[in-house]
Structures are given as C-alpha cells and as structure tokens.
Design goal:
Structural class: alpha/beta
Oligomer: single chain
CATH topology: 2-enoyl-CoA Hydratase, Chain A, domain 1
CATH class: Alpha Beta
Helix content: 40-55%
CATH superfamily: 2-enoyl-CoA Hydratase, Chain A, domain 1
Strand content: 15-25%
Largest sheet: 8 strands, mixed
Amino acid sequence: MKKKQVVRAEEGSDEEDETPMIKCEENRVYFHSDVDRQSCFKLIECLRDAQKYVALQSVMNEFEEMGQIYLYIFSNGGELHAAFNVADFILNSKVNIITVCEGCVASAGTVISLAGTERYIRKNAYMMIHELRSACLGTYSNLKDDMENNDMIMDHMKSYMNERCQNAKLSKKLDKVMKHDIIWDAEKSLKYGLVDKIV
C-alpha cells in the first residue's frame, strides 16, 4: 500500500468552495486565502511585483528612502511547507515586508505573518497558533517514518516561533498553547510577541 502524507498546520477547508483573493496594488499585497501550494505561488508572484514597484519608485525618488511592502493577511491556515516557503521569501527580501493581520490569521497563516520585518494586527483581528496536523496511510514502517518527520517539523515550527517572537512568556508556555485551538485577540497577540503593533 502506498504511503500518503499531508502535513498541514490547520484543518483546511477542502469542502468549502472559496475563491482565494490574492492581488497586488502597487506596494500593497492582499492574501485573503487558505495556505496551499497554489495560493503561495500566487502570493510570491504578487510580492515580486510589489518589489519591482518599490524598486522603481526608489530609483525615481533618489532622495527618499526605499519604500516598504505591506502584506495584508486574512487566512484560516493550511499547508505548513507552503507557509515556510513564503516565510523564506519574506525573510530574504531586500525590500522590507510588513505583515498586517486582518480578520483572523491562524495556523500556517501565522507562520507567514511572523516573517514580516514588522508585524501589525488590526484592533478587531484575531490570531491562532497550534500544533501541526498530519495524516498517513501505509505500512507500519511508513507510520513510524511519518511520526519521525512530524516530530522534526514540530521542533522546527516551535524553534521558528520562538526565534521570530523573541518573547519569554510565549517560550515558557508554547508547548501548552499549541495543544489547543484557541484564538487570541489583538492585545494578547501583542502581549505574546506574535505582533509588534496594533493598528
């Protein structure tokens, strides 16, 4: 029997027929979508377009500082590997990318938002972090391999969150927090270092 592995940071919305809203307007990028390979590919395309826009504006305005990109995120989460791909793109961007959490940003969406040079949240928005979800079908050995992979990915995710948040309070209770699907309001997200500012 062939093994099938899907690593998700959030139970996606496979049953829902939602059209993702991903677009670029000058230096503003909107990601109102679940996190999957296709949506993240489109998001990176939009971020590249915004980088070109900012670079062109910088050349035309020789005495002004280089502009920034604002990435507006509203996401239930989704595939963790896709989220880390976007996070790597943001972290390596020569143009600062500020993430702005709107509505609710959960799970793999939070992984993306944490990569921002600065991280903002709307006053009435929410965030959520939790442990990964995975499904595996196959032999006993496949299942053991899958669990080893899941342990490695969980350690990576916790390390990433601690590195990006730099928050002693969160670090102490991260394992406990991630075992539950509890959303945090803007104030609590700020308190535990998921964001830098409420806007």
